[in-house]
Amino acid sequence: MDKQTTSTPIWRNRKAVPIILQAIFVIVVGFALYFMITNMLYGLEQIGLKLGLDYLQLKASFPIAESLISYSPDDPYIRALFVGLLNTFKVSFFGIIIASILGIVVGISRLSNNWMVKKLATVYVEVFRNTPLLVQIFIWNFAVFLPMPKIQEALHVGPFYFSNRGTAIPWFQVHSTTGIWLIILAVLVIAAIVLYKLLMKKEIETGKNAYPFIISIASFTAGCLLMFIAIGSGPVHFTAPAVQNGAFVGGTTLSIGFLSVLIALSIYTSTFIAEIVRGGIMGVPKGQTEAAKALGFNGSTSLRLIIFPQAIRIIIPPLTSQYLNLIKNSSLAMAVAYQDIVGIGNTVINQTGHTIETIFIMIAVYLFFSLTTSLFMNFFNKKFQLVER
């Protein structure tokens, strides 16, 4: 008798079942998207709106207190949103720098042999890490900066002025030779780097200290002094602020909202960075520290030359996540009237009714900042990874 072959049912076929399930998932998601999009278009049609970006060319008709570029209410909405983008970039950029410095200092302090330094760093981390960021922003805004003196009675410390309208600090102004100076500085920086590498190579080959860092910095400084003498002016002019007719004149003024968000973001994020730094240093084998001591290195030198360069490989990946969190947390700035992309976007929505388009623009801005930061940190991470032989 011929053997009868029995086929496996399709619902028991290991190759077919995953394909069927994925197809069903795609169909369900497609129907859900179709329902939401058609419902959105119907709702917009009911209120007389159509999807499009033509509204971005209309006059904004609202002021913006802080702007890195020239702006007036007569400018279109697209320029107002660009101002918001730059304001978001400003608070995120300086926040990342300050948070990184604070995080490294506090993280190293938590491993200090000094009892007082170690405990103070621990209290700093535990207090600010466990307090909600929005609460910290409100504390800085309403409890620290707003109670400051009026501008007529502004607290004057050196060239700095502190008042309930903001903090005025010295700032620079470009002039006719600024472009020439930028080219010269770029050349001097490249020359200093090349000199540093040559001297470092010589030091390694001869075993004698060639002082590469000191000589390269000295050569860069000497080049700048020579160019200053030749040109007769520096790359920029600095202006000091002053109070005239109830307003700050000269320098630049940092608003209460910007300072509140910047300080709160920097301190809050620095607590997480501090723990990352501490964990990275502790992740380096103890034998490295013992070897450094055996070679006669003191604590700070071994940390700078041996421990931290190895710890940075552990630190960078989680550090990237904290940078991304800081950028996204900057959206809380609207709570204290700092006009970032979210605050200006909400104003545009209230005036035009184009909610969908404006929200997608805000999403695109944060996506751009996040992806750019991730790409830079990934590139930075590859430079510090061990090369496999």
Automatic annotation (TrEMBL):
Keywords: Amino-acid transport, Cell membrane, Membrane, Transmembrane, Transmembrane helix, Transport. It is a multi-pass membrane protein. Pfam families: BPD_transp_1 (PF00528). PROSITE patterns: ABC_TM1. GO terms for biological process: amino acid transport. It is found in: Cell membrane. InterPro entries: AA_ABC_transptr_permease_3TM (IPR010065), ArtM/GltK/GlnP/TcyL/YhdX-like (IPR043429), MetI-like (IPR000515), MetI-like_sf (IPR035906). CDD domains: TM_PBP2. GO terms for molecular function: transmembrane transporter activity. The keyword Transmembrane applies. Signal peptide: none annotated. It comes from the Bacteria. The chain crosses the membrane at residues 20-42, 91-112, 133-151, 180-199, 211-234, 254-274, 359-380. Belongs to the binding-protein-dependent transport system permease family. HisMQ subfamily. PANTHER family: AMINO-ACID ABC TRANSPORTER PERMEASE PROTEIN YHDX-RELATED (PTHR30614:SF37), MEMBRANE COMPONENT OF AMINO ACID ABC TRANSPORTER (PTHR30614). This is Amino acid ABC transporter permease. It comes from Niallia nealsonii. The lineage of its organism: Bacteria, Bacillati, Bacillota, Bacilli, Bacillales.
